[in-house]
Amino acid sequence: MNHCIKKKNKDFINFIKSIYKSNKQIKLHEPRFYGNEKKYVNRCIDSTFVSSVGKFVDRFEKKIAKYTKTKYAVATSNGTSALHVAMLLANIKQDDEVITQSLNFVASCNAISYCGAKPIFIDVDRETMGLSPSALKKFLINNTTIKKGKCINKKTGRIIKACIPMHTFGHPCKIDEIKKICDYFHLFLVEDAAESFGSFFKGKHTGSFGKLGVLSFNGNKIITSGGGGCIITNDINLAKKAKHLTTTAKIPHKWDFDHDMVGYNYRMPNLNAALAIAQLEKLNEFIFNKRKLASKYQKFFKNTNFTFFKEPKNSKSNYWLNSIIFQNKIQRDQFLQETNSKGVMTRPIWKLMNKLHMFENSECDDLKNSNWLEERVVNIPSSVTI
Ligand SMILES: Cc1ncc(COP(=O)(O)O)c(C=O)c1O
Question: Using CB atoms within 10 A as the burial measure, which of 152, 224, 236, 285 is most buried?
Fold first, then answer.
């Protein structure tokens, strides 16, 4: 093995251990609970309102709407259920088609599939690792036609109804350009902002550009509710329908049980919201800390043969997961091997969605950048440093 690379990998391991002041296993992303978490969770337990009704969950929704500067927020059991409901609100039905990026976490593809629809995989940009507006436009111009306000896939004859770009690892994608394209082609825009809570594009919170935005508060995210998610929107009808669908479609009444459609038990429990509110109080501190960590990484990787992935132009990223790009797969694999064997957790980026057997027959474009990044990107420890 190249001696110089081996030395760089060793330097990285020592650097990480000094940053986290630890010789034990260093995780990719651990939550931090040093605020009011226990106090609020205990208060919630004392109230007995631990499930889907309670003051914490209502308060959490108001705080999320305020922070993201959206009009409405509907808290859900997790980000995946929020994506599923977003697909239902976009009226996605059996055999419809939905565009998303192939360099992705599996949740959006699952949500599309829950509705019996088919994903179409489009390439990402190298500068953002999010959906590429130019690839999206090219695909739509070459492959679709607009009939009666609907975007029809000329090859399959199916309707392409929606588009789900994702803000990869917290870095905003070029969402303003994507929005323009979606508007032109009559595509319902759902932003998967699961990883980008606290990230802004041109001063606006990610998730607030689309008709709907989806957030996740899973244990590995910048703030956590244990498990949880949220739908954000400026559309009152969509917000009302989201709340209805996530609360078993029950018609509000003091004692009657009446449901007007098939609904879902997807509301965030009050107990989780209690934890989330305490975490929210720490959000700015976490973002500050993570951005500081990112700048330390940037300096460290400056004169090496890997590239540290910086926030894209026009954006302020939460730097949820830091990543580096290797020159090739061999160097990447050496790094993964050496760091993990020395107790420093590092992970390759996801396998492309079109390579998962459930989606292997899906339509794709050339996925040039996705394939390139898939071989080279590694996530490195990114927890808030203590
Ligand atoms: C991009 C993306 N979308 C959706 C989800 C799903 O969120 P959850 O785990 O809360 O269901 C996640 C991660 O967990 C994610 O990273």
Answer: 224
Q: Which of 114, 195, 347, 353 to mutate to test the pocket of ligand 1 (most atoms within 8 A of CB)?
A: 195
Residues 381 and 320 sit within 8 Å (Cβ to Cβ)? no
Q: For residue 157, give the nearest of 113, 96, 99, 100 by alpha carbon.
A: 96
Give the pairing type, strands 315-316 and 200-201: antiparallel
Q: Which atom of ligand 1 is nearest to the CA of 220?
A: 14
Q: Best substitution site from 218, 223, 275 to test ligand 1's pocket, by max atoms within 8 Å of Cβ?
A: 218
pLDDT in tens, 65-106: 999 999 999 999 999 999 999 999 999 999 999 999 999 999
- Spatial neighbors of 66 by CB under 8 A, at least 6 apart, are none
Show the tokens assigned to 6.
Answer: 């081996």
- Say whether pLDDT at 251 is over 70: yes
How many Cα atoms sit within 13 Å of 84 on the Cβ side? 19
How many other C-beta atoms lie within 10 A of the C-beta of residue 52?
Answer: 18
- Do residues 329 and 375 lie in contact, with contact meaning Cβ atoms separated by under 8 Å? yes
Q: Are 101 and 233 in contact (CB under 8 A)?
A: no
Number of CB atoms found within 10 A of residue 248's CB: 16
Q: Which of 360, 367, 365, 363 lies closest to 158, judged by CA? A: 363
